[in-house]
Amino acid sequence: MRLSSDRTVRLLSADRSVVDSRPAPFEPRHVDYRSADLSDHVAGAAAIVAADRDRIGLLVAGKLAACGAVDRILVRLNAPEYEAAFDDIDCELLDFGSVLHETVESSLGPPPA
């Protein structure tokens, strides 16, 4: 996952302990995912949705996409079998395996041919 350094990144979570533990470069905010207007929290930013359940992630990503306030939405996927549920939303899905793979590849380089 690469985000440009000139972009504000906000981590939205309903769990205060997640928000309190996040250092820079994130601008963490505690947000009730049922909030009617998420655009107040994410205008002009990339949004990372890290819900503990995929259905909540789907709801928040859908609301963010509908309000059009962000140009990039990243959603943590907890269970790969729910990936298809996000097909109609313009978002990027992150799961532990893909993040680990990208981290290893960027650190060590691509595998030998």
Which key features would you list for this structure?
single chain, 113 residues, alpha/beta, Rossmann fold, 5-stranded parallel sheet, 33% helix
Structure description:
The chain has about 110 residues and is of the alpha/beta class. It has one domain (about 10-110): Rossmann fold, CATH 3.40.50. The protein has helices spanning about 15-20, 40, 55-65, 95-110; strands at about 10-15, 30, 45-50, 70-75, 90-95. The chain has a five-stranded parallel sheet. The longest helix has 14 residues, at about 55-65. It starts with 8 loop residues before the first strand and ends in a 5-residue tail after the last helix. The model has no long low-confidence stretch (mean pLDDT about 70).
Write the layout of secondary structure elements.
Elements: E1 9-13, H1 16-21, E2 29-30, H2 39-42, E3 46-49, H3 54-67, E4 72-76, E5 92-94, H4 96-108
Parallel strand pairs: 1-2, 1-3, 3-4, 4-5
Briefly, what is this?
The chain is an alpha/beta fold.
Distance between the termini: 24 Å
- CATH level-four homologous superfamily name: NAD(P)-binding Rossmann-like Domain
Stated plainly, the CATH topology is called Rossmann fold
Question: Radius of gyration over alpha carbons?
Answer: 14 Å
Overall pLDDT, averaged? 71
What's the tally of helices? Answer: 4
H/E element order: EHEHEHEEH
- Helix vs. strand class: alpha/beta
